[in-house]
Amino acid sequence: MRYKSLRGKHSLKINKLILLIAILMTPLSVMSGVKFKHSDTFWLSVGGGVRMQLDSKKSDLDNNSDFSFDSVRLYVAAQIHKYLKFSINTDKQNHDSTDLIDAIARIEINPSVNFWFGRTLIPGDRVEINGPFYGLTWNQYRQPLFPADQGGAAGSLGRGEGGVFWGTTKRVHYVLGIYDGLKGFSNRDSNKLYAVRLAYHLLSIESNFGYYTSSTYFGEQGDILTIGFSFQNQIDGTGSVTESGDFYSYTFDILSETVMSDGGVITLEADYKKFDSDFTPVSPPTSGFDSCFCLFDGYSVFSTIAYLFPKVVGWGKFQPYARYVNNSPSDARSSDSIEMGLNYIIDGQDTKFNLNYVQGDANASGFASRNVGRVTFGLQLQF
User: Fold this and answer.
1) Residue 4: domain span
2) 314 shares a domain with 376
3) Residues 205-241, buried b or exposed e (16+ Cβ, 10 A)?
4) Full-prediction pTM beyond 0.90?
5) Choosing a second label site near 382 at 20 to 30 A (CA), which of 1, 213, 335, 358?
6) Which pLDDT belongs to residue 267?
7) 73 and 21 in one domain?
8) What's the whole-number mean pLDDT along residues 228-252?
């Protein structure tokens, strides 16, 4: 266990929390972090991840507190040939059923030539490819999301059925994908969704699993300055059965991470996202969303700054951060939010605590919601 080094000097409250986590995670942790290896090209690995949180919300209409499992995931990967691997990942959120989020046949020939087929992550901006486990902030989904993150007809958790060609050539990282995208609604001709991401690494070349990304490496990969561009398009990708609209979106994102002489790390992240959904419901975003597959139309921006203190305090290091988001739809009022947070990093993205406060009316639909103040205490574990 990761916590066997704890001593009685820690508070009873912390010990109870750790005991609760251990009990909750026992069925998963028995299997997790295990690799069965026959040879370098024939193996099976099993892992898992969990994000849990306790949050308190306050608005003009209500005040409430809630404990929830933001995400519980099982990771399974295997290799059966020099060039052939497989990945199967599941996700369960709070009391929802367990979903199969990834089922990928991975043909990986060399760093420049790789093909993934099946149910895979659709290329997008850095935040969407991060997934919840590799973001810098706890509440990174307050911008409008791509179609596959809307759930149901166009995909779920950023995934869809299709295939990608990806690779790295010197400082350029590229991902090209073709997917089913929206099924039904306005897409009566079964037009495909096309997705592209290009990233250029000016300093250190980021190292991740496949074409996935992260919003911080805690200085472990040196100085980073990466500029990314992504694009998605689907004809008839938004609208209703009786009226269709084309969808396209492009984004620019940048990540800078600087390791200071004393070991401290400054991280800067920013993103500009433009949506053109070519379809406007009669009453956005309420009644129109009940009868159509309606997407945000307009633009959104965010910026984040963080500093990882070099000194180890107790088990880990502190990383305070601040994030600002602004969503500006073309057919409704703008919204924004500010998040002030503190990460306590014990083992990178595998073990960390988070405490944050969010104030604002920005959310993942892109349209303004109620102005809510929210305090969240979260824990993330991966094995």
Assistant:
1) 1-25
2) yes
3) bbeeebbebbbbbbbebeebebebebebbbbbbbbbe
4) no
5) 358
6) 98
7) no
8) 94
Of residues 189 and 151, the one with the higher pLDDT is 189
Structural domain count of the chain: 2
Both tokens of residue 293? Answer: 């597959």
Same domain? 220 vs 275: yes
Q: What is the pLDDT of residues 350-367, one digit of tens each?
A: 999 999 999 999 999 999
Closest listed residue to residue 49, CA positions, set 96, 93, 95, 97: 93
Q: Degrees (nearest 5) of the Cα angle 94, 97, 100?
A: 110
Residues 80 and 17 in one domain: no
CA angle 164, 166, 169 (to 5 degrees): 165
Percent of the chain with pLDDT over 70: 88
In this predicted structure, the answer to whether residue 109 has a pLDDT above a threshold of 50 is yes
Q: How far apart, in whole angstroms, are the C-alpha atoms of residue 152 and residue 92?
A: 16
